């Protein structure tokens, strides 16, 4: 009988305005979004001395921007240096702004059940690039960027979709730190310029 389970589903005393919260959020979005930046000036883009290297964040969900789905940063790799090596579940696209270099990519076999399991494949592939090129990093690929020029910096713009994190798939692992990584350093235009000088 359809009503036979009444004794079970009718239990519970807690009330929450969850649907009303959705309505309120939708109603307040235009005013809230009007206060969020559609233009981000260079002095509003935070630097980070990260394990992946020297980053200048262009768009990030922690910044007050109108962008809802994408994070982007500029990575500056000093002459003859390299980025950190990492792996993440989301695919990534990088635009080579300045310089030339190469990537090393190592695909992984992945299994997602109640737990997440990945295993690197044996083959490591090299991809050479120069200014104006676009680099595609497939999902769950171990990768690292190398500046092939001993005299000039390599600048990359990295773009990644942040939606995968909201789906519970924020799998990010740092495998090797960038040579410049030092958490005690605070980046500024002056300290970044010092990193870009040929030693």
Automatic annotation (TrEMBL):
UniProt cross-references to InterPro entries, sorted A to Z: Cupin_2, RmlC-like_jellyroll, RmlC_Cupin_sf
Gene3D superfamilies: Jelly Rolls (2.60.120.10)
Record domain Cupin type-2: where: 74-159
UniProt-listed Pfam families: Cupin_2
Superkingdom of origin: Bacteria
Protein name: Cupin domain-containing protein
Organism: Roseibium marinum
């Amino acid at each position: 009988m359809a009503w036979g389970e009444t004794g079970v589903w009718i239990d519970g005393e807690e009330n929450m305005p969850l649907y009303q919260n959705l309505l309120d959020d939708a109603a307040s979005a235009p005013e809230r979004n009007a206060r969020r930046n559609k233009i981000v000036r260079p002095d509003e883009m935070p630097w980070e001395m990260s394990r992946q290297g020297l980053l200048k964040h262009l768009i990030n969900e922690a910044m007050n921007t109108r962008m809802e789905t994408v994070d982007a940063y500029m990575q500056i790799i000093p002459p003859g240096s390299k980025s950190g090596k990492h792996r993440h579940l989301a695919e990534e696209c990088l635009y080579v702004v300045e310089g030339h270099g190469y990537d090393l990519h190592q695909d992984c076999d992945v299994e997602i059940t109640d737990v997440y399991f990945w295993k690197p494949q044996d083959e490591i592939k090299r991809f050479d690039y120069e200014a104006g090129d676009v680099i595609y990093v497939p999902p769950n690929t171990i990768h690292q960027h190398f500046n092939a020029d001993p005299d000039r910096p390599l600048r990359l713009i990295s773009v990644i979709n942040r939606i995968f994190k909201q789906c519970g798939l924020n799998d990010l692992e740092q495998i090797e730190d960038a040579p410049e990584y030092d958490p005690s350093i605070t980046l500024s235009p002056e300290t970044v310029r010092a990193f870009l000088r040929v030693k």
